[in-house]
Amino acid sequence: MSQSNTTLNAEQVMLERHSVREYKRDVVIPEETLNEILTLAASAPSSWNLQQWRFLVVKEQANKDRLLPIAYGQKQVSDASVVVVVLGDLQANLTGHQIYDAAVAAGAVPQQVRDTLVGQIDGAYTSAQVARDEANKNAGLASMQLMLAAKAKGYDTVPMGGFNAEALVKELNIPDRYFPVMLVPIGEAAKPARASGRLPLSELVINESF
């Protein structure tokens, strides 16, 4: 069961989402609810609609425990209900072929438009740096949406960049096409998160030009 049955509006979800590092063990997120969270996360925007992310979901306790040394002993990867390894796709141009071929078959996009778009995408992805930048950028969008979706369903999260990426790739047999962008544990907080301070808009917003 989620922490709360109260429905939060979008503003509340954004303001009440805080990074939680201590979770109740042995809490099971219903499969239907987890799929709803992942579906909401997957609705994030992406460049060319390539959806340059994949969600590697780790639920089994033994597998979560395997992540402990990889995450330098941070217990949230073991205690949370689920750990989502957000992956960036370095060959997302291949997804472009799939998406735009389907769009042509459905009559949604003319063949000429498909060919132009796919040509642009394939051209951009000849650059390894572009491929990695796009993967990082778009996986970041999906990660934020994942955390907001979890909060909307009554669960807490924490974005984690502190892990041994090379060891994670080896341990979970991640193909070369993908690389880990971040870990996102999801579960019920063992104690309330402490809200962190935010800079005032006067320090964050630049109007028109520097």
UniProtKB/TrEMBL annotation:
<dbReference type="Pfam" id="PF00881">
    <property type="entry name" value="Nitroreductase"/>
</dbReference>
<dbReference type="InterPro" id="IPR029479">
    <property type="entry name" value="Nitroreductase"/>
</dbReference>
<comment type="similarity">
    <text>Belongs to the nitroreductase family.</text>
</comment>
<protein>
    <submittedName>
        <fullName>Nitroreductase family protein</fullName>
        <ecNumber>1.7.1.-</ecNumber>
    </submittedName>
</protein>
<dbReference type="GO" id="GO:0016491">
    <property type="term" value="F:oxidoreductase activity"/>
</dbReference>
<feature type="domain" description="Nitroreductase">
    <location>
        <begin position="16"/>
        <end position="187"/>
    </location>
</feature>
<keyword id="KW-0560">Oxidoreductase</keyword>
<dbReference type="InterPro" id="IPR000415">
    <property type="entry name" value="Nitroreductase-like"/>
</dbReference>
